[in-house]
Protein 1
Amino acid sequence: MTASANLSVAHRATMPDPHITTFMQGWSLEATLPQETEVAALKMILPPGALVYLSAVPTRDPVAQLHAAVRVAAAGLVPVPHLAVRHFSSAGDLDAFLARMAEEAGVTRVLVIAGDRDPPAGAFRSALEAIDAGLLQRHGIGEIGIAGYPDGHSRIAPQELDRALMEKVEIATQLGLCVHIVTQFCFEPETIVGWISRLRDFGVELPVKIGLAGPTNIAALLRYARRCGVRASAQGLARQSGLARHMFAMSAPDGLVRVLADAHAGGRLGQVAPHFFSFGGVTATARWASAVAAGRFTLDAGGGFQVAPPTG
């Protein structure tokens, strides 16, 4: 190979992959009750109008989630609170919560989930019941997210998951709500691609936000995987990160993003975008994802990429 050819190969290796930057457009972030300092940092990192999903914490008063939504909205970002319907003691409590979210934080979209509380605090047992109750539209909610589970659910059979998803899509559409799907995080790209492909085969062309764990260490990923019922082993995570002997080293989802970006470029996924769970910290996750979306990375021979450190 000539010197000029060597230079050409080196130049291509340092160029961002357009498939990755295209795939990253419209990415979103999930946070657990971000505090004022975190929201201030997000305001500096994210573009105005970026979506910040706000987890519902079973052990915390829903008012804490409301306050987080107010902070996010005041920063020029768009709060998308999780509406965990099993946490509400009555339809009246849910109605009052939605009224405050709309009035104080300008919320117009929510992610409707059942929630992990068992038994439920009130009459709502499933997301479908809350969607069908008519409360969302009453408070100006025009779009909802519903949950998808590429890796399955620890307590629900696959056939039941499929049935529930299709019912939620049908009812929400009949009620005039826009719908998108937000998936639980998963560590295997083949599982994600297969699940979305099957969804498309069913005729569901809704936008899908693909849940991915943002940069964090493997030990923390295992802990969250067990808590969330994701079927992931230490060996599987080690295959993704190449850090089998370094459980507390940082692991980023670059390999996953690269494979999914290629599948997206090949037309296999339809309308999708990454959705990052901020297990390693909300600001660190936002910085990493923003850098990737801006093309500040270089591909590596291991099938992933390295993100350039922030400047300034």
Protein 2
Amino acid sequence: MQRMLSLATLAGLGGAVWMFLSGGGLNQLAVPPAGVGQPATPGAGFGSPATWNGGAVTPTVQPTAAGIGAPALGASPTFRIASFNIEVFGKTKSEDARVMYTLAEIVRNFSIVAIQEIRTQDDSHLANFVRLVNSSGKSPRRYEYVIGPRLGNSQSKEQYAFIFDTQRVMIDPNTVFTVGDPNNLLHREPLVASFRTTEAADSAFTFTLVNVHTDPGPEPNVLPGELAALAEVYREVRRTGRGEDDIIMLGDFNADDAYISKQTRIGMIPGVTPLVRGVYSNTRQNKLYDNLIVHALSTTEYAGKSGVFNFGQAYNLSPAEAEQVSDHFPVWAEFSVYELDYNGVIARRGTNVR
């Protein structure tokens, strides 16, 4: 099933107002659905594991003080969704075994990871990486992936991807699409996909992820324009999402939580809020670029825990070694595996209307 959103610009008093058109004569602008990747045979990865600074370290996450609109879940099972801009994730990194095994261990900390900045012409790059994710570590795993097309206004094209643990979540392949943008308001059009948890039968948490990577400039109006357009992406994905109200926009926004909340259209949507606050997400620890954004009153499944995974500390890396992995740390948030109503009560499908 192929879907798309297309953007058009309207004049507005004091600034630009964005709206979306879908279907009709714009079908030629649709991007073919991304393919769901099957993990390759374990054991055919990037060579023998290498260790950094004395060997493997059990990672720990550094939570932020977040709890916006989150019910008390008690002992309810949870899972973690992360976003990770892997700087220039392509040939150079794939040839460095230490970097690739570190990246694989990072991914294994989360049930879903939205990846930005895949930059390679090698169509087998992500399949090889997911093979490594599945074959590394102390126990075998079965992660799969979905990857979007190469995008970008410059000669350097990038791809988005979702890598997900099939023991915790499943994807609906009919919901995977890239947002269409005929007026070129976005440097890289978001990749959208819907998931559900696997552990809760008819009360499974269902949600839609919108993977984004904004362009920071250098012109001063570029980033505000992209963030304004993302507000309408968020609204339209929710409007056309077959009744799904749990829309999680995540990625590299090139803007911190305060800027998103107070100076952007998406932050002005009532109830929409970034989950990662007051911390830094880059490896130099001086900027917060990455985040997960939810509508707090709808996504009561948010368990009140979020933060930045400082893999430099977790794996005892020097600053230079950490930056070889990426100039961004992953950001993450924790959610209940159960679909919850607005009071934090498990909502069974077919009996509860949200």
Protein 3
Amino acid sequence: MPDGVTPEQVAIMLGTDRISISPAVGRDDGSVWVLSPRPIGIGRLRIAPDSFPAARNTVRLIDAPAFGTGLHPTTALCLETLDEIVQFHPPDAVLDVGTGSGVLALGALILGVPRAVAIDTDAGALRVAAENARLNGVDERLELLRGGPETIAGTWPLVVANILAAPLIEMTPTLVRRVGHRGTLVLSGIPSSVEPDVHQAYKRLGMRRLDVRSRAGWIALLMQASW
């Protein structure tokens, strides 16, 4: 409830005096509010708080403000798409652009991708991602770097970027250069209303749309390099 609504007002509206109050914590840039972290299932993966025991196909995350709790629709869309890619066309490496908590890179590694590089411009997010990697026992297979796609060299068979539509369009030339021969690109953080703009920006540079997924007004684009 908003801060301006008192428990007494809620009790009157519900016709009861049995009201319990718990603080909600903002996560994923304030777009998701949680009373306490809880496990959720996404494809073959389970996203769980760090207090839960290690288990097969489980990504455990510390409770931190870095984006990527698994609760936001864009994160879920990316993880579902990654799950299918790894299951049917497993790559030998993945690049995670704007990694936040590291959940996408960690999910790929736990599903069997041998190695991952994750980049972010936020040093705080990289610290959270490093702690999450250690927690899940994959830190030796994950390389964390500060910066955007223009700060690194090389190509990857699978690139994922869950950011926002405007920066995705702005970084189109550099992000496309990170996609290898017949490589796959997963883009999200895209409101459904601007999906055509993002699609056109990448189509102009040789990316072919394979699939579009939507949830709660958000879009994930699956694209493949034409080269």
